[in-house]
Amino acid sequence: MKARWNPLQVKMTFSFGEKAEYVSLQAADVLAYEANKRIRDVNRPHRRALDALGFDPSRITLRFYDRENLGWLVQRFEEAIARDPSLVSEAA
């Protein structure tokens, strides 16, 4: 598993728990999945799972990054880190 999923040998941990302990992680997973579906077909109506999360376009913005606009995102991260270096953990 290390060779395939962790080629840089970054320190990783896995843990298991009850569903009730990881509700926010489950919500983030559903949001990522539903965002991917939405980005692939922007004309499709919202799916029930996205609505169940209380999706509000004024609070959550879905964006697609590719070779043309990924530089913009990287620049924003670099600017944020320059303002507050504590955003980057020591492990990174």
| End-to-end C-alpha gap | 20 Å
Overall average residue pLDDT: 82
Task: Report helical residue fraction.
Answer: 40-55%
Show unreliable segments: none
Question: Could you say how many structural domains there are in total?
Answer: 1
Shape: extended
Please give the count of helices.
4
Task: Please report the total strand number as a whole number.
Answer: 0
Rounded to an integer in angstroms, the radius of gyration calculated over CA atoms is 17 Å
Give me the strand/helix succession: HHHH
Q: What do these coordinates show?
A:
The chain is mainly α and 92 residues long. The chain has one domain (18-87). Helices cover 45% and strands 0% of the residues. It contains 4 helices and no strands. It starts with a helix and ends in a 9-residue tail after the last helix. The mean pLDDT is 82.
Descriptive tags:
single chain; 92 residues; mainly alpha; 4 helices; 45% helix; extended
